[in-house]
Q: What sequence folds into this?
């Protein structure tokens, strides 16, 4: 076995670093994902797919990866992650429009610092709370920030701020003042690099003793305390890390949109969407939230062109995911995979599936008929 | 030595702990058993000592040998996780383990915590060889090697109890407070659970304070007996009191003789 291939329980694993290993299937998926990320600009050039929508989806997905640290490990539901996304976006915009900072990377640094500061502050107040109280408190802080920005002249009320340092051109990236197509492309690859690094860091984190301590806190807070884990402090740290992911995503979002307003970045509804992205993609997985982000944002952007009641779409999708795909898109792949391979070996199963669907349809129809009879005739 | 000084705790009208003063571990590795009828305040006392509850009155004090003299430290009001650092560790009447983790992962959390490594960012499986070795020892000590890769919630009850205690031992306790370690364990396994705990605490010189309802076990293993009744210390002394003291028998068993 070479340095990068190790044997675990008879299975070959690809070893990237100490403790970071992939099974064969995971390695294939990761490679496919990485290639897909890299060729997105080419695909969108030759197909009607929207490049910006995918880019935006990845950014919200990055915020959802951060949120997922709390959701998956400490088992806390945050309804206020738009706060960090928005603060990140506004930090970049303020630097560009109020301080004439022209470097995009400096703006990103500002986003991270601002999101850190805000999450340290909010985290201090919410770290001791659980369940519905945690959810409501995060939501409340989010709403306070939104209302404040909306009413503040410094942030230009509901119109928001431009992210054009000279009032015309996009910020410079790596010291280069690029044309708008070039800018979008360079920014996209910057996003890809940030995303991959963020995912690797998160992977390392959740597989470290600190990650296990967060799991312990999520599974049994009292026991965690009595094995000597300072629960509130650790939740606080996790909260800040998760906020930094949101801030970084928000900063990149500002650079992409070149304009930041409260509604699409800070509004509590966005918090709900970020949460939904994690669930849609599979919150039991590391990469799922990114996929959830791309899928949901893409749908939200494209749906208005095709459906009249596009606002109902999010709700319907949420229903569908909770009912039929509770482990999310990525989380369901292993199950779907084994299901398919079993059916390939045993075609009889397929006939059973058809029978099952048929009988449940019949049952549904007869139940509906009974209900109608009761409503119309008053008796069955 | 661990000392409860005039501890009092009230829940509304009920005085669950009523001016209790006790010391544990005057001799190293002492095994104290706390007995008493339901509602005597046994669990409340342990909760007060370990910091799950704060007393309305009184204090919890740790005595430590330092430079030839004894140092007293008042730990009332100290957070439970910090008391663990003082060597004060507990298990729970209702099993408290990390249900979705395997037995080994459960024990690992405790050992990592003991080594102050829970903030470490190095990967779990590599680079913590001393931790892994200690986990092996603990699993062997508590006879959990065979189930080490089972998820905690799927274990039989006796093994779950042992896991709970094994995690406590992994924290390297000076004082170990066990709230009914044999509750719900089948009679033939009770002996086995207590035996394992006794062996482990003798090996490490741990002072144990155990709440127990099975008087046969108490008689067999106790160095000292504490009887609580209606929140107060009713009797304190040799376990033979259980046989000789008729008033005690009346309180514990509800029988008149």
A:
């Amino acid at each position: 076995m070479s340095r990068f291939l190790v044997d675990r329980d008879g299975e070959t694993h690809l070893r990237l670093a100490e403790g970071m290993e992939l099974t064969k299937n995971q390695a294939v998926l990761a490679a496919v994902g990485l290639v897909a990320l890299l060729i997105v600009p080419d695909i969108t050039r030759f197909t009607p797919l929207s490049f910006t929508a995918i880019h935006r989806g990845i950014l919200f997905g990055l915020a959802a990866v951060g949120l997922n640290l709390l959701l998956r490990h400490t088992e806390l539901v945050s309804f206020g992650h738009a706060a960090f996304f928005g603060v990140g976006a506004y930090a970049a915009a303020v630097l560009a429009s109020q301080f004439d900072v022209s470097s995009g990377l400096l703006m990103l640094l500002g986003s991270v610092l601002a999101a850190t500061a805000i999450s340290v502050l909010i985290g201090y107040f919410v770290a001791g709370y659980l369940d519905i109280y945690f959810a409501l408190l995060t939501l409340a802080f989010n709403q306070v920030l939104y209302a404040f920005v909306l009413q503040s002249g410094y942030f230009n009320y509901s119109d928001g701020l431009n992210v054009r340092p000279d009032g015309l051109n996009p910020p410079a990236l790596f010291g280069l003042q690029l044309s708008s197509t070039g800018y979008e492309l360079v920014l996209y690859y910057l996003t890809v690099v940030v995303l991959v690094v963020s995912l690797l860091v998160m992977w390392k984190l959740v597989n470290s003793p600190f990650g296990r301590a967060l799991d312990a806190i999520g599974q049994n807070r009292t026991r965690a305390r009595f094995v000597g884990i300072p629960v509130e402090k650790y939740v606080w740290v996790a909260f800040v890390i998760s906020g930094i992911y949101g801030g970084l995503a928000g900063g990149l979002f500002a650079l992409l949109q070149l304009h930041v307003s409260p509604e699409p970045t800070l509004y509590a509804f966005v918090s709900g969407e970020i949460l939904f992205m994690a669930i849609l993609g599979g919150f039991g997985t590391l990469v799922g939230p990114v996929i959830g982000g791309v899928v949901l944002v893409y749908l939200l952007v494209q749906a208005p062109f095709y459906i009249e009641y596009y606002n109902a779409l999010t709700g319907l999708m949420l229903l569908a995911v909770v009912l039929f795909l509770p482990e999310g898109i990525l989380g369901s792949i292993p199950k779907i995979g084994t299901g398919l391979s079993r059916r390939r070996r045993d075609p009889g199963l397929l006939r059973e599936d058809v029978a099952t669907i048929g009988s449940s349809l019949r049952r549904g129809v007869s139940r509906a008929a009974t209900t109608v009879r009761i409503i119309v005739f008053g008796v069955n | 030595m661990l000392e409860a000084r005039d501890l009092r705790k009230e829940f509304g009208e009920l005085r669950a702990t009523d001016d209790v003063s006790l010391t544990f571990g005057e001799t190293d590795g002492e095994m104290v058993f706390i007995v008493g009828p339901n509602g005597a305040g046994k669990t409340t006392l342990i909760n007060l000592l370990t910091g799950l509850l704060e007393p309305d009155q009184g204090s919890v004090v740790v005595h430590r040998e330092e430079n030839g003299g004894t140092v007293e430290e008042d730990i009332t009001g100290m957070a439970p996780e910090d008391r663990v650092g003082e060597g004060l560790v507990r298990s729970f009447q209702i099993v408290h383990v990390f249900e979705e983790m395997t037995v080994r992962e459960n024990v690992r959390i405790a050992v990592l915590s003991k080594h102050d490594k829970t903030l470490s960012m190095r990967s779990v499986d590599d680079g913590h060889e001393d931790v892994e070795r200690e986990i092996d020892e603990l699993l062997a000590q508590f006879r959990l090697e065979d189930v080490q890769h089972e998820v905690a919630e799927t274990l039989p009850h006796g093994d779950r109890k042992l896991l709970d205690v094994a995690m406590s031992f992994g924290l390297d306790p000076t004082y170990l407070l066990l709230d009914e370690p044999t509750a719900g364990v089948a009679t033939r396994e009770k002996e086995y659970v207590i035996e394992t705990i006794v062996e482990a605490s003798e090996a490490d010189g741990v002072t144990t304070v155990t709440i127990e309802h099975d008087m046969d076990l108490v008689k067999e293993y106790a160095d000292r007996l504490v009887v609580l009744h209606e929140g107060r210390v009713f009797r304190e002394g040799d376990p033979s009191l259980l046989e000789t003291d008729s008033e005690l028998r009346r309180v514990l068993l509800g029988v008149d003789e």
